[in-house]
Amino acid sequence: MKTITIAIDGFSSTGKSTVAKQLANKLKYIYVDTGAMYRAITLFAMQHDLIGKEHLDKTAIIAALPSLNISFKYNEKVGFAEVFLNDENVEKEIRTLQVSQFVSIISTISEVRRKLVAQQQEMGKSGGIVMDGRDIGTVVFPSAELKLFMIASAEKRGRRRYDELIERGDDVKLEEIVENVLKRDHIDSTREDSPLVKADDAIEFDNSDMTLEEQFDQIYALVEKAIGC
Ligand code: DC
Description:
Rossmann fold; alpha/beta; 5-stranded parallel beta sheet; binds 2'-deoxycytidine-5'-monophosphate; 3-stranded antiparallel beta sheet; 229 residues; globular
């Protein structure tokens, strides 16, 4: 069977990573969560007090980039590759609301984007990959064989992210999650460098009123078509 590149973009909490993981497991492809890479750099910046509510030390963040090594290691127990920052597993730390509150700002820094895009292109150079993010179909893999652009109502998206954080045991309020999701959408789609936009040849997929099973079946049919089965 031909191996392809599957690019999944879309707004925050539209279920990109859920379907990407399902597809990668089914097709035995590599799955790369590019948001996790931006989150890992954000975590580093927070740990070193390079970003906060009132400050952003862009120069120091850029200077630190060569020393930051982001990698993924597959964890059989969870069924996907977890993210490591300089050999430390940061999978849990990068999912907090605090990281979500700063990650869109960090993602506007062109030097950060250049480093991560180069690494993403290297990871996907042989195909057989499902990658999700904001600029995968437009910048990272503009010639991907299948591009999806996921959308869902803000209400559904806020609720999904809230349920995830509550399940992890975080103490959060639904209103602050919805506010964060909308704020990130705004920054992500209006930034100068590689804003979140639907690629001309991407298929828009609205999963607001769909079960996970329905979503997977419909998307898998698109994959089969792209592979040429
Ligand atoms: O997918 P996520 O919610 O974990 O992504 C976190 C943030 O990272 C998102 O708000 C914007 C940024 N991001 C990006 O700019 N480009 C990507 N390819 C992936 C994520």
